[in-house]
Design a protein that fits this description.
With 274 residues, the chain is α/β, with parallel strands linked by helices. The chain has a single domain (4-273), classed as Class I glutamine amidotransferase (GATase) domain (Rossmann fold, 3-Layer(aba) Sandwich). It has helices spanning 16-25, 35-40, 67-76, 78-86, 96-104, 184-192, 262-273; strands at 4-9, 29-34, 50-53, 90-94, 118-120, 128-136, 168-175, 179-181, 196-200, 222-226, 232-235. Strand 10 and strand 11 form a beta hairpin. The chain is globular and about 50 Å long.
């Protein structure tokens, strides 16, 4: 059976259609679900295997990016979220979805209602909308080839035909508040617990804090993290915007053999079906 995906919508989300397309392309059964449908219980999270929070500007990023949606989830959907997570549901939040997950406390430590990190304004002082390099790290995220169940088929990590190290890939960023920030103790715990899944890297594939390779000034070049179970993933770059070769700016030159966002959806969907 195709895993069912809840594409959560509310006022201001605007990457939901791209996310729907990506999940559908790689074999899932996505559905658009407005947050009010969950509040009214006309739709229930327990009917899905994956919860996906898309990018955009939920509620106009009023107060702070993702803040109002996070408060809404904690205030009105806490029981549904806890039940969904306790039954091994998978969660992915992209850009504004990542901001929301951090503000709910689900990332980085899975403490719903306790915010322990933030995504602050970019150090550049302006909105970043361009392509950047990332590297996948060893982490607890089970559907990205680590801590996989025995016998689970995997996909090779992406690479570019330009001399970059394996595991380095490119995605687009579109955000004004993407700087991952937390106190030293929190960052140290995250690193020791292998909760960092993606980092911004330079042209040699090395993690960097330098602009423009690091588009927002994130501590330790952090671009994406998971919770201790590995089943909740958040990242600032947009994998759903690179699932077709033709979405890459220089696709005609043949340097990209596979759209670099594809492996995230392939792995996530594959893991949800096992």
């Amino acid at each position: 059976m195709k895993p069912k995906v809840c594409i959560l919508r509310t006022d201001g989300t605007n990457c939901d259609e791209e996310l729907f397309y990506a999940f559908e392309k790689f074999g899932a059964a996505p559905q658009y679900v407005h947050v009010n449908q969950l509040r009214a219980k006309s739709k229930k999270l327990k009917a899905f295997q994956i919860l996906a929070l898309p990018g955009g500007f939920s509620y106009g990023d009023d107060v702070a990016s993702g803040k109002i949606l996070a408060v809404e989830l904690i205030s009105y959907l806490k029981d549904q979220l806890q039940e969904f997570i306790s039954k091994n549901g998978l969660v992915i939040g992209i850009c504004n979805g990542f901001q929301t997950l951090v503000r709910t406390g689900l990332l980085p430590f899975g403490h719903l209602g306790k915010m322990e990190a933030t995504l602050a304004q970019n150090e550049s002082g302006h909105f970043e909308c361009r392509w950047i390099r990332l590297k996948i790290e060893k982490s607890r995220c089970p559907f990205l080839n680590l801590y996989l169940k025995p016998g689970l088929p995997t996909y090779s990590k992406p690479g570019l035909d330009n001399g970059l190290e394996n595991g380095v890939f490119e995605l687009a960023v579109n955000h004004g508040e993407g700087r991952f920030f937390a106190n030293n103790e929190t960052i140290a715990t995250m690193e020791q617990s292998n909760l960092v899944v993606f980092r911004y890297v330079d042209g040699k594939g090395k993690p960097t804090g330098h602009y423009p390779e690091n588009p927002n000034g994130s501590i330790n070049a952090i671009a994406g993290v998971c919770d201790p179970t590995g089943r909740i993933l958040g990242l600032m770059p947009h994998p759903e915007k690179f699932v077709d070769i033709t979405q890459y700016p220089n696709w005609r030159r043949g340097k990209v053999t596979e759209p670099h966002g594809a492996f995230i959806f392939k792995q996530l969907i594959r893991f949800a079906t096992v």
